[in-house]
Amino acid sequence: MDNPYFNKKTLTSCIIISILLIGISYSSHYLVQPISAKSSSYDKGSSTSKDSSSSSSKDSSSSSSKDTSASNSSSNTSSIALNALELKNETYRWQNTSEAINPTLHLIANTDYLIKIKNPTDTKHELIIASNGTELAKSNEIKPGKNGKLNFANSTGTFEYHCEYHPDTMKGIIEISSQ
Predict the structure, then answer these.
(1) 106 near 159, Cβ under 8 Å?
(2) Residues 13 and 70 in one domain
(3) Triad 159, 162, 166: Cα angle to 5°
């Protein structure tokens, strides 16, 4: 018996629309998750400058964060936290404090960035920022259980970041705009 207000075709359409909406909501959280430059609890556990993974490189221009919660000191520097993350079968990714995987970093020009890196994994990592195959900045090697940092400043544009040792799985995009 057909109910004029509720038939199989209507039910199927409602289920499909619901699944699509849930899928869009879920994927947008993980695919378009920006990282905000802000202070974190990272400072409490970070190593001293004696650590072999201290900052190493800096460009002559500078960058800033869109996030109003950014930690800006008198030298106009913002902090970003990235952690190495180990998945199954020794597959590694970068993860931010929002737990986004290989997040796109949305930055604004004219502020220096200090990218703080934690390595809780059992292998070494090294963060590299590049543009069209040209290395712009890199951290030193970050040994298992250690922390590192990288100073980065640049003009507007799109850049990539990756791990020296895991470039196919630990990679992401940096978008720097003038506003």
Answers:
(1) no
(2) no
(3) 160
Model-level pTM?
0.59
Q: Distance from first CA to last CA of the chain, Å, rounded?
A: 61
Phi-psi region of 62 (alpha: psi -120 to 50; beta: other; left: phi over 0): beta
Element (H, E) at 93: strand 92-96
Domain range for 25: 1-32
The predicted pLDDT at position 99 comes to 92
Please report where in the chains the tokens 């008198």 appear, as a residue.
74
- Overall residue count recorded for the chain in this entry: 179
Residues 6+ apart with CB under 8 A from 60: 153
If asked whether residues 64 and 140 sit together in one domain, one would say yes
For residues 28 and 39, state if they share a domain.
Answer: no
59-112 confidence digits (pLDDT tens) = 333 333 333 333 333 457 789 999 999 998 889 999 999 999 999 999 888 888
